[in-house]
Write a structure and sequence with these properties.
This protein has about 160 residues and is mainly alpha-helical. It has eight helices and no strands. The longest helix has 20 residues, at about 95-115.
Length: about 160
């Protein structure tokens, strides 16, 4: 596992070995590089969803988005959810989407208030310690919400 900032480099700089390809590239059907590829096929497999939900790079992005939602959104939980949603899909959430996100936040918050070690592990992941004014359980709950936002088809494909 890379450290000292190398873990945040773009996939363009990932070392590629034909005998042992990078797992995330394979999940998203990266070409083999043995021949030129004009256009990549469009696919959607469960492995892609598992990668975007669980891969360390995606979890780090979720934790960073959660920190941004907590730091930049003015107001309460509703405003944070709307702000994060708008950052990801560039539109306001529908009422049912917002209700789902707020429910997910409340359920996650209850879980992480009972599990401070798990909250710290998720909220900090490989990032630095969160600012002192941020509650770790809240940050972990917003990280779960951010992970869902970053895994939306609308976020990934932006059609």
């Amino acid at each position: 596992m890379s450290t000292n900032g190398d873990q945040y480099r773009r996939g363009l700089y990932t070392f590629w070995r034909r005998t042992a390809p990078f797992a995330a590239f394979m999940a998203f059907d990266a070409p083999s590089r043995e021949v030129c590829t004009e256009r990549r096929p469009r696919t959607n497999t469960p492995l892609q969803a598992l990668a975007t939900l669980n891969d360390n790079g995606f979890v780090d992005c979720s934790a960073a988005l959660a920190r941004r939602m907590m730091a930049e959104a003015n107001g309460g939980n509703k405003e944070r959810a709307v702000y994060g949603f708008r950052l990801c899909v560039a539109r306001p959430p529908a009422d049912e989407e917002l209700a789902f996100l707020l429910k997910l936040y409340q359920e996650s918050l209850q879980k992480y208030q009972k599990d401070p070690a798990g909250a710290k592990l998720l909220a900090t992941s490989r990032l630095s310690e969160p600012p002192k004014e941020m509650n770790t359980a809240e940050l972990a709950a917003w990280t779960v919400v951010a992970n869902v936002l970053l895994n939306l088809d609308e976020t990934i494909t932006k059609e």
